[in-house]
């Protein structure tokens, strides 16, 4: 089917140029100059786009539909798109409201939990108060150490004083990795990836948000976490009368730790350790939005296969720490075929075949 150009049908300038009266000479325009687009020209472009879409639809149908049917089908598509757009614009504010409420709940619960974990591990004197954000941040020795960029030594007095005075030589921004991201809160300056995103504080906060605050107690040392999802399902089955709250990981069907989930927790912990009392994109010179992107880029923007393998192993470590050692989902048919049960079955069949062949 050839779709007749509706634009050319209404355009007198589209007549045969061979000696037709009223044909204007070709004018060569300077591409650097701005050319005003008339409403008539825009309409022609829109018609041409519709014609191209109809031609594509006709080819997809194998040439079995008429022009009228294609126009009707295109109208139905446009109506569905418009209804979907209207519904999306109506739902988006509610989604944003729900996301803000969930983030607020996490922030509120982590404020008390993180403060308790820090007090328990570092035993500061005086203890950090959960209801006083102004005593956190760099004014507090322990919070300041955990928020200190990895390239500086918080124990050096000049570093501590310069950060607190916000001098130009010691600018704390999203371009530095804070110490709380590192395992045992120690940094190897010659190998900055060593222990990166493996801190106990991150693991505890992750479990508190996505599994349950009580499950955070099950992350011990370098061992594996408990099978949180299975424990949660068993608890719900055992409780006939008592209502058991379903963990967030079960609700969203999270079975593996993702880079975005780690990034979200890192931002939450950073905010909890800071002295800022309410969420803002900027905290002094620190940009939370850029910090979010920097952590995601660590996972996604890898220079090669070696780095990709290390990133994958880090995510496997996280999944083991959070969800335990249940790997049933990884039991592929190929892997099962190599296990002893199938091996014994194959040996028995071979024995029967050997006896049958000898008769």
List keywords for this structure.
two-stranded antiparallel sheet, 1% strand
Protein described:
By secondary structure, the chain is mainly alpha-helical. The chain is 54% helix and 1% strand. It contains 13 helices and two strands, in the order αααααααααββαααα. It has helices at residues 6-9, 39-60, 67-122, 141-147, 157-165, 200-210, 228-238, 248-251, 259-273, 288-300, 305-323, 333-337, 340-358, and strands at residues 282-283, 286-287. The chain has a two-stranded antiparallel ribbon. The protein is flat and about 80 Å long. The termini are far apart. 17% of the residues are buried. Mean pLDDT is 80; it is low at 2-24 and 225-229.
What general form does the structure show?
A: flat
How much of the sequence lies in strands comes to under 5%
- Structural Rg: 32 Å
Order of helices and strands: HHHHHHHHHEEHHHH
Strand order of the largest sheet: 1-2
- What is the total tally of β strands? 2
| Alpha plus pi helix count | 13
Give the SSE map:
Layout: H1 6-9, H2 39-60, H3 67-122, H4 141-147, H5 157-165, H6 200-210, H7 228-238, H8 248-251, H9 259-273, E1 282-283, E2 286-287, H10 288-300, H11 305-323, H12 333-337, H13 340-358
Antiparallel strand pairs: 1-2
């Amino acid at each position: 089917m050839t779709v007749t150009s509706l634009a050319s049908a209404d355009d007198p300038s589209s007549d045969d140029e061979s000696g037709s009266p009223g044909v204007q000479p070709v004018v060569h325009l300077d591409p650097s100059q701005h050319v005003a687009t008339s409403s008539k020209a825009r309409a022609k472009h829109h018609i041409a786009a519709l014609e191209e879409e109809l031609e594509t639809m006709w080819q997809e149908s194998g040439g079995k539909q008429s022009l009228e049917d294609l126009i009707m089908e295109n109208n139905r598509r446009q109506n569905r798109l418009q209804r979907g757009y209207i519904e999306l614009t109506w739902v988006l504010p509610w989604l944003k409201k729900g996301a803000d409420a969930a983030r607020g709940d996490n922030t509120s619960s982590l404020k008390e939990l993180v403060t308790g974990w820090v007090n328990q591990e570092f035993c500061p004197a005086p203890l950090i108060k959960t209801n006083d954000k102004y005593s956190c941040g760099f004014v507090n020795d322990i919070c300041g150490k955990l928020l200190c960029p990895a390239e500086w030594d918080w124990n050096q007095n000049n570093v501590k004083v310069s950060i607190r005075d916000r001098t130009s030589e010691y600018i704390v921004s999203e371009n530095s990795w804070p110490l709380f991201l590192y395992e045992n809160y120690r940094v190897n300056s010659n190998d900055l990836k060593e222990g990166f995103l493996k801190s106990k504080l991150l693991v505890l906060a992750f479990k508190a948000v996505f599994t349950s605050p009580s499950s955070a107690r099950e992350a011990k040392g370098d061992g594996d976490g408990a099978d949180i999802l299975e424990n949660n399902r068993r608890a719900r089955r055992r409780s006939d009368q008592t209502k058991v709250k379903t963990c967030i990981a079960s609700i969203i069907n999270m079975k593996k730790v993702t880079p975005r989930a780690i990034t979200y927790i890192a931002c939450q912990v950073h905010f909890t350790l800071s002295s800022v009392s309410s969420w803002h994109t900027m905290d002094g010179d620190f940009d939370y939005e850029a910090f979010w992107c920097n952590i995601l880029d660590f996972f996604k923007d890898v220079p090669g296969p070696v780095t990709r393998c290390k990133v994958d192993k880090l995510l496997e470590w996280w999944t083991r720490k959070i969800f335990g050692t249940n790997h049933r989902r990884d039991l592929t048919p190929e892997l099962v075929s190599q296990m002893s049960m199938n091996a014994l079955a194959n040996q028995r069949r071979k024995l029967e075949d050997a006896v049958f062949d000898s008769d």
